[in-house]
């Protein structure tokens, strides 16, 4: 029945209907083609954008890698320089420490020697004072036994005011009195020289002790300076802030 209907239908109508169907199919295919082309273009644009972003990110990463390598080389060079500087500082500090220790030993030996000299001088001074007193007592005893001297000197050794003229005495100046006065002057001069030597020795001891204190301060300052430089070098090499150097502790001053 369908075939008969088709045979009975006008061929023109059939062709028109077939044409419409083909046109609709063609339009549908063209629409699908346009959609696929648009999707393809959109995908290409997205892929291009992703590729550009990936290339930009790769460039940034390459630059960062080169910068990191350069920083690593600089850090290694700085580390090597810091190690060399630290070694030099250690050597300089060791030499200064050895020199300061030698100076301290030398100063201590000199101070001990001067203290021994002062002790000897003090003992000698005491002995000389004792000997001078004994000699003075002997001289006073001789003066008291002498008739002419007892008239001139008192028991304390002071001169007496005599109103007797030299013509009335009828005696000449006694050589013994001159010798005694000369001995007294020599003893007083020797005593004064001994006291002067003692004072000079004490002054020298004070000066040496002051130098010893200055050397101790220099050693402490050198230790603190080396410690501060070492810490700063280590902190600089590791990229952190340097610590503040410790305050230099002053050693107690020795009493003079």
UniProtKB/TrEMBL annotation:
The keyword Coiled coil applies. Residues 234-256 are annotated as: Disordered. Residues 12-117, 177-225 form a coiled coil. Keywords: Coiled coil. PANTHER family: RAB GTPASE ACTIVATING PROTEIN 1 LIKE, RAB GTPASE-ACTIVATING PROTEIN 1-LIKE. This is Rab GTPase-activating protein 1-like isoform X13. It comes from Acinonyx jubatus (Cheetah). The gene is RABGAP1L.
């Amino acid at each position: 029945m369908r075939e008969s209907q088709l045979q009975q239908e006008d061929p023109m109508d059939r062709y028109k209907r077939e044409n419409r169907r083909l046109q609709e199919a063609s339009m549908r295919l063209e629409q699908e083609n346009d959609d696929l082309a648009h999707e393809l273009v959109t995908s290409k644009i997205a892929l291009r954008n992703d590729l550009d972003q990936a290339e930009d990110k790769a460039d940034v990463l390459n630059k960062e890698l080169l910068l990191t390598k350069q920083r690593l080389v600089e850090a290694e060079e700085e580390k090597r320089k810091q190690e060399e500087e630290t070694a030099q500082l250690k050597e300089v500090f060791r030499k200064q420490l050895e020199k300061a220790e030698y100076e301290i030993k030398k100063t201590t030996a000199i101070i001990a020697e001067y203290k021994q000299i002062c002790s000897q001088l003090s003992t000698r001074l005491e002995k000389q004072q004792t000997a001078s007193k004994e000699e003075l007592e002997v001289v006073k005893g001789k003066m008291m036994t002498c008739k002419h001297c007892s008239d001139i000197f008192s028991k304390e050794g002071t001169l007496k005011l005599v109103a007797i003229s030299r013509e009335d005495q009828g005696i000449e100046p006694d050589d013994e009195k001159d010798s005694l006065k000369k001995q007294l002057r020599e003893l007083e001069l020797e005593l004064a020289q001994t006291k002067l030597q003692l004072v000079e020795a004490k002054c020298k001891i004070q000066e040496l002790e002051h130098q010893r204190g200055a050397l101790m301060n220099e050693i402490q300052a050198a230790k603190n300076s080396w410690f501060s430089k070492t810490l700063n070098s280590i902190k600089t090499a590791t990229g952190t802030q340097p610590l503040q150097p410790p305050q230099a502790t002053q050693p107690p001053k020795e009493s003079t």
